[in-house]
Design goal:
Elements lengths: L7 E3 L4 H11 L3 E5 L5 E6 H9 L17 E2 L4 H8 L6 E5 L5 E6 H9 L22 E4 L2 E8 L3 E8 L7 E3 L3 E9 L2 E5 L2 E5 L4 E4 L5 E4 L6 E9 L8 E4 L8
Parallel strand pairs: 1-2, 4-5
Antiparallel strand pairs: 2-3, 5-6, 7-8, 8-9, 9-16, 10-17, 11-14, 11-16, 12-13, 12-15
Length: 250
């Protein structure tokens, strides 16, 4: 991890120095090391709040947690999964065989690495990962809304909800194919020259350059999972042939 010193603090530092570092690195934690850079503990912003409530002063020397989870560079993937599956483990220092700090990985970094199909390596610069990509916003549409669950260079996954009486435009895509699985509700799908009824569990494959449309003609929300595969997943790869809401392709 680049600038690893931003996430580490010497064991003889004061509480105030730790607060300043936590405020600057915006992670909510620090790895505590001794003068030889050996990891000896961890401390979080919550730990510091509890110290202050107990009457400690900002000028007092750190009191930190010496019972902590950590990784060795030689640890296998299974151990990392098990550690992050523990409720209170949000970050892990990575140490060499002498317990010197060599990297740090957070639970969010771990999820990003896996969801975006990046090569697993404990030497990876995890700070380069954009954590906001784990939290895609809900996008409102005239027919309902969608939320991206995964977006990588290889694929995109969405959960799409179509309100009763609404429909997506009759459209096609030049740069991606789509795979739909109906989760709840019912309606109709137009695919090329065919029309089919859809219901929970129904799977629809939509090749590139094939016109398609989904219509909710029921009384409940129609929800489906959309997996996109291709070379590009932008909204500007939508070519509309007809649209209930008078939208163009922009």
């Amino acid at each position: 991890m680049k600038n690893i010193l931003h996430f580490a603090i010497n064991e003889l530092s004061t509480i105030q120095e730790a607060l300043v570092k936590i405020n600057n690195n915006k992670t909510g934690f620090l790895i505590v090391v001794n003068i030889s850079n050996h990891v000896v503990g961890v401390i979080t912003d919550g730990d510091i709040r509890r110290l202050l409530l107990k009457g400690y002063r900002l000028s007092d020397t750190l009191v930190f947690n010496t019972e902590f989870k950590y990784l060795k560079k030689s640890d296998e993937f299974d151990r990392i999964c098990k550690l992050f599956n523990k409720a209170k483990v949000e970050f892990l220092p990575v140490c060499d065989n002498l317990m010197r700090l060599v990297n740090i990985i957070t639970k969010r970094h771990f999820h990003l690495l896996l969801l975006h199909n990046l090569k697993w390596n404990l030497d990876y610069d995890f700070s380069s990962l954009e954590e906001r990509k784990l939290e895609h916003d809900v996008q409102s549409k005239p027919w309902g809304f969608y939320k991206s669950t995964i977006l990588s260079q290889d694929f995109q996954s969405k959960i799409i909800t179509v309100f009763p009486g609404e429909e997506l435009s009759l459209q096609e895509h030049k740069k991606r194919e789509e795979h739909w699985i109906i989760v709840s509700g019912s309606g109709r799908v137009i695919l090329g020259e065919s029309t089919m009824d859809v219901f929970p569990g129904k799977y629809i494959f939509i090749p590139q350059k094939v016109k398609h449309q989904i219509i909710n003609d029921g009384s409940d929300n129609l929800v489906f999972n959309e997996i996109q595969l291709g070379s590009y997943f932008g909204e500007d790869d939508i070519i509309r042939h007809s649209d209930k809401y008078n939208r163009d392709n922009s």
